[in-house]
Amino acid sequence: MAYALPDLPYDYNALEPYIDEQTMRIHHDKHHNTYVTNLNKAVEGYPDLAAKRIDDLLANLEIIPGDVRLAIRNHGGGHANHALFWTCMASPGNGGGGEPTGELAQAIESSFGNFATFKETFIKAATTQFGSGWAWLSLDQHGKLHVGSTGNQDTPLSHDHKPLLCLDVWEHAYYLKYQNRRPEFVAAWWNVVNWPAVAERYAQGNT
After folding, report:
1. Which of 21, 22, 79, 206 is 20 to 30 A from 142, alpha carbon to alpha carbon?
2. Measured between alpha carbons, how far is 38 from 60 in angstroms, rounded to an integer?
3. Which residues pair with 89 in a beta bridge?
4. At a CB cut-off of 8 Å and minimum separation 6, what does 120 contact?
5. How far apart are CA 160 and CA 153, in angstroms?
6. Tens-place pLDDT, residues 63-107
7. What is the pLDDT of residue 207?
8. Residue ranges of the domains in the chain?
9. For residue 5, what is the DSSP state?
């Protein structure tokens, strides 16, 4: 297999009470695994594509043959987005929640004025995304931070942006616990954001 389902970096119940164990099991073991399975099917017969990092494929969709481009965009995006999403979170007792510090905090303040305004902007992107999709904090080629959303499994990688932080707002990410109350899920999620991991990606992308 060219691509594999990554292990969660914590136990399934580590994000309780904000994200429940059953949702994490279904989300990771079923939904993410299906994206990986279908991505591997898409690259069968294309060893040159299978040898590339999924981020590189998504950043260069134009190089992918037309007969598999949509499948790689959808299932490859699903794999890459979820792989990043798991690392964007940590248990409240092990680094999750709070606010960023250091260079990332300074960059957020420079780009958005202050953390509160950034958070408000991100929440709006997450709650107003129509249908399934994602909210993002990303870094452009000039070192500027951006907040936005994408539909389905699209990713900032396809627009020359480096994803730093993402929130899955597909219903399967929250429906068991929050039903149709997406804003409640978004509000709770801030308690498990792994800011040290986001800061590390920012530092790597800014070098």
Report:
1. 79
2. 19
3. 193
4. none
5. 16
6. 999 999 999 999 999 999 999 999 999 999 899 999 999 999 999
7. 59
8. 21-87, 102-205
9. P
Between the CA of residue 20 and those of 114, 162, 187, 206, what are the distances in Å? 31, 29, 15, 34
Q: Report pTM.
A: 0.97
pLDDT over threshold 80, residue 193: yes
Q: Is the dihedral of CA 60, 73, 29, 96 positive or negative?
A: positive
Contacts of 78 (CB under 8 A, 6+ apart): 31, 32, 34, 35, 39, 153
The topology (CATH level 3) of 102-205 is: minor pseudopilin epsh fold (3.55.40)
Preceding omega of 17 cis (within 30 degrees of 0): yes
Multiple choice CATH, 21-87, 1.10.287.990, 3.40.640.10, 3.90.550.10, 3.40.1010.10: 1.10.287.990
Q: Which residue has the tokens 């079923």?
A: 30
53-82 in b/e form (b: 16+ CB < 10 A) is ebbebbbebeebeeebbeebbbbbbbbbbb
Phi/psi class of residue 133: alpha, beta or left (left: φ > 0; alpha: ψ in -120 to 50)? left
Helix/strand/coil for 73? helix
